[in-house]
């Protein structure tokens, strides 16, 4: 992948929000690349910057109070941050699709699903009403909504939560975008429906060679869907790399803590899940060093003073990057030997 021209290249992106309590530095110096056909799982707890960084790339944060303080976002070589709102509207939906977390607040409750899909198709593809309706039915079938010809006349509240999420996916992929961004798209669904949605996304990705950014707090979802995982905390990337490499040998203590928090299949009964101690940082007063240092049992004095750069993890995959001033595998081994 590293030898190909990236579809998306994010360079030193920083985003802030001006609030009565002070300026919240929500995203801080985020850089990465994404290639065509790749699925990137962006993971982190609430307030880590994972959703804000994606929404800011395509002009979906409110300005004010939000503002992009630095950076470039190159999509097929064009800097999205320099485009006008009209130009961004042309790209959103047509070239970059977005699947939101809550369909009930994202879908218009007083318009039928047909009306909402047709509006997207006519706006971006220039289809006639009849052509757009035919395509809309095809999309509902594609996302496995039964009896699509009849259900397309329904309103959002007449669908179950899982079916509403399928409608959102249909809208996100309606115009054949090269990149789809899904923000916590399965968070509110039960595990059975969540598994169905993930299977659907895998099929769509395989059949259409879609590039996907999947934003979630669930490492288990990332393991089953993504090629690359990107761990964010305090508005920064702390670790990034191929899913297999990161899960097999995490090099940042925050990633290690997230993986330890996952339930273990067949584990002993009545065992409490691991909980990362402490609280997220106050981003109105961002720390000078590693934002995870106060919660990190392996932190060094340097961690509190200086933010480590993202560098290749020694002894791992060449694309496995970590921001850490410590050797986590060695420290874990020493701890277990005590």
UniProtKB/TrEMBL annotation:
<dbReference type="GO" id="GO:0016887">
    <property type="term" value="F:ATP hydrolysis activity"/>
</dbReference>
<feature type="domain" description="ABC transporter">
    <location>
        <begin position="8"/>
        <end position="259"/>
    </location>
</feature>
<dbReference type="Pfam" id="PF00005">
    <property type="entry name" value="ABC_tran"/>
</dbReference>
<keyword id="KW-0614">Plasmid</keyword>
<dbReference type="Pfam" id="PF08352">
    <property type="entry name" value="oligo_HPY"/>
</dbReference>
<dbReference type="InterPro" id="IPR027417">
    <property type="entry name" value="P-loop_NTPase"/>
</dbReference>
<keyword id="KW-0472">Membrane</keyword>
<dbReference type="GO" id="GO:0055085">
    <property type="term" value="P:transmembrane transport"/>
</dbReference>
<comment type="similarity">
    <text>Belongs to the ABC transporter superfamily.</text>
</comment>
<keyword id="KW-0813">Transport</keyword>
<keyword id="KW-0547">Nucleotide-binding</keyword>
<dbReference type="GO" id="GO:0005524">
    <property type="term" value="F:ATP binding"/>
</dbReference>
<keyword id="KW-0067">ATP-binding</keyword>
<dbReference type="InterPro" id="IPR050388">
    <property type="entry name" value="ABC_Ni/Peptide_Import"/>
</dbReference>
<dbReference type="GO" id="GO:0015833">
    <property type="term" value="P:peptide transport"/>
</dbReference>
<dbReference type="InterPro" id="IPR017871">
    <property type="entry name" value="ABC_transporter-like_CS"/>
</dbReference>
<dbReference type="InterPro" id="IPR003439">
    <property type="entry name" value="ABC_transporter-like_ATP-bd"/>
</dbReference>
<dbReference type="InterPro" id="IPR003593">
    <property type="entry name" value="AAA+_ATPase"/>
</dbReference>
<dbReference type="GO" id="GO:0005886">
    <property type="term" value="C:plasma membrane"/>
</dbReference>
<keyword id="KW-1003">Cell membrane</keyword>
<protein>
    <submittedName>
        <fullName>Oligopeptide/dipeptide ABC transporter, ATPase subunit</fullName>
    </submittedName>
</protein>
<dbReference type="InterPro" id="IPR013563">
    <property type="entry name" value="Oligopep_ABC_C"/>
</dbReference>
